[in-house]
Amino acid sequence: MRLVGWNANYNNHRRTFEENVALLEQFNADVLVICETAPPQRGDRAVFVGDTPGLAVAARDGIELRPHSMNDGALPLFAGFRVAGPLAFDLLATWPVSRKGMPSYHDVLMASLERYSDLWAAGRAVMLGDFNSSTKVSSQKRSHPRFVQAALARGLVSAYHEQAGEPHGGESVPTYLHGNGAEFHLDYGLVSLSLVGSVRFRIADEPRWFEISDHRPIILDIDARPAGR
C-alpha cells in the first residue's frame, strides 16, 4: 500500500482540496494525508478536521478508513484511523499547530503519543504528516530528540532515517523550505518497528514542489501482508 503525506501550504497557495488531490494523482496513493488544505466538497471520499485550513485524509476505493474512538475530544488537527485493505494497520494523520498562548509543537506531539497509545500498542502503526519539528530549528534542538526518544519508547521510528541511515538534523534531503531560504526536515512517516523491513520511503524532491508549496510530498510504500492482526 502507498501512503502520501503533503502540506499543501493553503495560506500561500489558495487551492481547493480537489486541486491538491489532482497534484498528487501522479503518486497513485492508496491513502492521502494532506495538511494545511481547504476542506473537501460534499461527496468527496475524505475525512476533514479543523477549520480552513485543516487536515484531510482520503482513501481510494477499496480502502476503508475507520475513525478511532480517541478522535472524540482529541487534540486539534490529529486524526486516528484503523485502515483496512490489502494491508491492515493503524494510522495517525498528524499536523500539530501552535500559536501564541497555545502549547508548543513539542508539547502537542508528546500529548498525541500519549492519547493515541492504543494505536501504538497494536504494533502495526503509521504516524504521518507535517510534524513541525526538527533539530535544525534552534528552539527545538533539545525538544525534537526528546520526541524521537518518546516515539521509540512506543515502538515508533522514522522510516526515512532508518532507510537513509542519517541522524535527525542531518538529513540530506529536506522536506521544507522556510521563507528565509533555510531547509529543514519537518515531514515524517513514523512506523512501528515491526513494519520497518516492509517500508520504502522517498521524498518527492523535484524542484517544482517548492514552487507550489513550502513542503515536498513524502511517499511511504508498505509491502502488503495478510490483513489479519
- Specify the biggest β-sheet: 6 strands, mixed
- Given as residue ranges, the uncertain stretches (5+ residues, pLDDT < 50) are none
Strand order of the largest sheet: 3-4-2-1-14-13
Terminal CA distance reads 16 Å
- Helical content class: 10-25%
Mean pLDDT rating: 94
Please tally the β strands and state the result.
14
CATH superfamily descriptor: Endonuclease/exonuclease/phosphatase
Query: Would you give the CATH topology?
Result: Deoxyribonuclease I, Chain A
| Structural shape | globular
How would you describe this structure to a colleague?
With 229 residues, this protein is an alpha+beta fold. It has one domain: 4-Layer Sandwich (Deoxyribonuclease I, Chain A). 20% of the residues lie in helices and 31% in strands. The chain has a six-stranded mixed beta sheet. It is globular and about 45 Å long. The protein starts with a strand and ends in a 7-residue tail after the last strand.
In short:
The protein has 229 residues and is an alpha+beta fold. The protein is built from 6 helices and 14 strands.
List strands and helices in order, with pairings.
Elements: E1 2-7, H1 17-24, E2 31-37, E3 46-50, E4 54-59, E5 64-67, E6 78-84, E7 89-94, H2 105-115, H3 117-121, E8 125-130, H4 143-153, E9 156-158, H5 159-164, E10 176-177, E11 183-184, E12 187-192, E13 199-203, H6 209-212, E14 218-222
Parallel strand pairs: 1-2, 7-8
Antiparallel strand pairs: 1-14, 2-4, 3-4, 5-6, 6-7, 8-12, 9-12, 10-11, 13-14
Helix pairs in contact: 2-4
